[in-house]
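pinging the channel bc i need a second pair of eyes. not urgent but kinda urgent?? the chain im working w is below, pasted from the shared doc
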Amino acid sequence: MLPVATFTVQGLSHALVAARLSAEDGIGVRHGCFCAHPYLMRLLGLTDDEVTDFRNEVRRGDRTRMPGAVRASAGINTTEADIGRLISAVARIAGGAPAPVAYIQDPRTGDFIPDRAFAPWHADTGPNGSPCLPG
């Protein structure tokens, strides 16, 4: 059995959820299609026309609307407290809690990063001591 959970948050981009978990809570996750594009498109219930539209946008260099999900993985050192932090953070985000900082989306990658000009924490660390660096 693999300690992996894949999820979406209704109404929010997978990329934004991943960025918020990282910047606001110091929780590293992956997001996107995980090298399983056809399977994920089916799981997300996308029509052939929707998939074609997304592919055309990507070909034009715009990944802002790319569908996907968030994947959290546990390792040998993951504790119950770590899992509790993840669940609490996702619940806060899914519950509509506003972000403490604006996020900027890079259309080339689809990724979000905190807008450092308005971050309520030091430019190099998030509120829980997590780095807020893109990439």
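so The radius of gyration is 16 Å. and The mean pLDDT is 88. — does that match what u expected or am i reading it wrong
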